[in-house]
Amino acid sequence: MPLPAPPGRPPPAATTATDDRRGATTDSSRSGNTVEDRLSALKAYRRAKGLCYLCGEKWGREHKCATTVQLHVVQEMFDVLGFSGLPTSEERSDSESECHTISRVATQGTVAPQTIRLQGKIQ
């Protein structure tokens, strides 16, 4: 008895601004999107392009996410979340008088849900 045919692919969705990162806006005040909306848009974009949801690399049956995150993936997340990068000179002058602290949990390396750990080297 022959096997049934594999299920077909779902019909392609209509092209939206999230299908092309160049057309997507990153300013949350203009778009009115929440972080969850932007993350789901990123997930949809990666799915449409055949990329892994987590690392952004080409997905396949034998795909394994790398233990390190590539810089372009971090930049893509910053774009989605609307992180502007360097503070303006006014923001820098305000922050000079602030007291910076680090939590005990951060120094111990305790892992918790929704924690992002970045490791880098300064040359």
Structure write-up:
- By secondary structure, the protein is mainly α.
- It has a domain at 14-59 and 69-76.
- The chain has 5 helices and no strands.
- The chain has helices at residues 28-31, 35-49, 71-81, 89-95, 104-108.
- The chain is elongated, with a radius of gyration of 20 Å.
- The termini are far apart.
- Mean pLDDT is 71; it is low at 16-20 and 23-29.
- Residues 1-35 are annotated as: Disordered.
- Residues 1-13 have a biased composition (Pro residues).
- This is Retrotransposon gag domain-containing protein.
Whole-number radius of gyration?
A: 20 Å
Decide which structural class fits the backbone.
mainly alpha
Summarize the main sheet: none
In helices, the fraction of residues equals 25-40%
Number of strands: 0
Mean pLDDT: 71
- Quaternary state reads single chain
- How far apart lie the N and C ends? 65 Å
Strand content: under 5%
- The low-confidence runs, each spanning 5 or more residues with pLDDT under 50, are 16-20, 23-29
User: What are the secondary-structure elements, in order, as H or E?
Assistant: HHHHH
Number of separate helices = 5
Overall geometric form: elongated
Protein name: Retrotransposon gag domain-containing protein
Organism: Aegilops tauschii subsp. strangulata
